[in-house]
Amino acid sequence: MKINYKNNYIQKIGLIALCSGLFVLPACKKSFLDVDPQAQQPAVTFWKTQDDATKAVNSIYANLRSNENTGFSAIAIESMAGDDAEKGSAPNDATYYNDYDNFTVSSTEGQLQGFWTGQYQNINLCNQVLDNIPAINMDATLKTRYLAEAKFVRAYSYFRLVRAYGDVPLRLNVPKDASEFNIPRTPKAQVWAAIEKDLDDAAAALPQAYPAADLGRATKGAALALHAKVAMYQQKWAQVLSLTNTVMTMGYDLYPVYQESFRTNHENNIESVFEIQCELIPSISGSATSQYSQIQGARGNTPDLGYGLNVPTATLDAAYEVGDVRRNGTILYRGETTPQGDPISQSVANPMYNEKAYVTFNQIISGFNQGAQQNVRVLRFAEVLLMNAEAANEQGDVTLAKTSLNRVRARARGGVAGVVPDVTTSDKEVLRQAIWKERFLELAMEYDRYFDVIRQGRAATVFGPKGWKAGKNEVWPIPSTEIDKSAGTLTQNPGY
Asked: Lowest CB count within 10 Å: 186, 271, 282, 359, which one?
């Protein structure tokens, strides 16, 4: 069951209802402001009741499935430049994605703005909740939980921003007047600290689990796991180890069948730590907003599954060991028949597609985005185990490192003896390389590989042949529109 967002999916309250992005009022036109929002409650009558608080928090989750968060912009910023993914589709379609893959993108490219806007929309919605819910007379326990959920999503959005752009404006409250709109970039160390503070607060207040009606909301385990990931990016290995050790005691486990774990009928399973809840309600035409699956679906199939963008690379295909079930669980091949019995045509545009974004043919509903009901996996227990393995190895606990690593590899065998053998080395550097490769294979096409390689210090070697340059491509350019709107308060990243 998914969170009952339904009509709240487009709820934009307060400043977000006026404009998207960081600089809210200066970017709006008076004629736009004079139009009464349709089917939206005016902000002056909002923030009065517990029901208002519930709608506001639901709007945060609903915004996570927007295109800027999971669609065209996200694949540009978080996936396309990695060595696990490339543009795909037809050669003349969306050619701007090639600029991300070969590191020639300029600050005017539109997906940079889209991703930036999406994250600050999330943050703005979270800040509205955090500023306004404390004054509402409502159930105290629910109020505490709602504030913690907002802090989790705010931390998640700032994590995505800081690893993509480096220093970014840190806004922890709704602007109160014009003097607070135009703020400079905050040093990334301060942004990381704010993220960790939010996640500490969230983990202290969030429940470990929810009843069925609220399944999919942020949990204590999600806050701890995301905190571990944030700490990993800062090489705080003792903290990563402690946090992942805790999450490993909270009842999560690997879903037995890798390929099945990504299907819609197995969403929010025992391996799921956090996933973005997507929805398709045939009776509500506006419910199906996610394009995550449609964008990556096999182009030219019957039925047509989508645009065929963000496809696996030959490098990824060749990296899997013989017998590793994750190859067929990650890569949807031209001409194959899926385990669910769906034939992929020999005439589709590309030889491979992202199988993790695939939905079964019987779930394609005319008039809706293909696969709009497919949840987006953000944190899985497999990644918790791999973070634990990496931290344990860095801290000198080789035994624990191998135990956590080999737990992931055991599932990759698919029950077949003699394939995907356990890693047995006790050499720290060899084990480090094995863990990094396991992340490549286990988390392929999940929007992490590009940033993983950068944080590991290997980008010049891995991405250099594609044009990656040290001192520049560790981050993407700040969108030129944001710099223009700021009248120079925002500065550009070096090299752009």
From this structure: 282
